[in-house]
């Protein structure tokens, strides 16, 4: 009866249950938790990782409103000579990863290469996540 956004984030990070996967060539692609207030005057708040492996990601809050402009850090790049749109198709490849994904991959490499600095980074990410959750509570 008292499931919170933090409860759901914890569930999505649970590797022992098999919900969060990062082995055998497969990794959880991304995760989302939504807070849907019963009062229709209040906005819904959605938390997205937008990066793989929620156990090492931060859930970031989003509130969708009219006229919203997507953050450039989470938009996949576009290419004037996109191999997907040329004939014959896919004769070359391009890096479609958005900036946030690339930085997340660099953070994962740090976590694996230097456990102590990686743990410090993860603690910083969790603190940012906590600030997002606190901001959501203030908003609602």
Automatic annotation (TrEMBL):
Transmembrane segments: none annotated. GO terms for biological process: proteolysis. One of its GO terms (molecular function) is cysteine-type exopeptidase activity. Coiled coil: none annotated. Belongs to the peptidase C69 family. Secernin subfamily. This is Secernin-2. It comes from Peucedramus taeniatus (Olive warbler). The lineage of its organism: Eukaryota, Metazoa, Chordata, Craniata, Vertebrata.
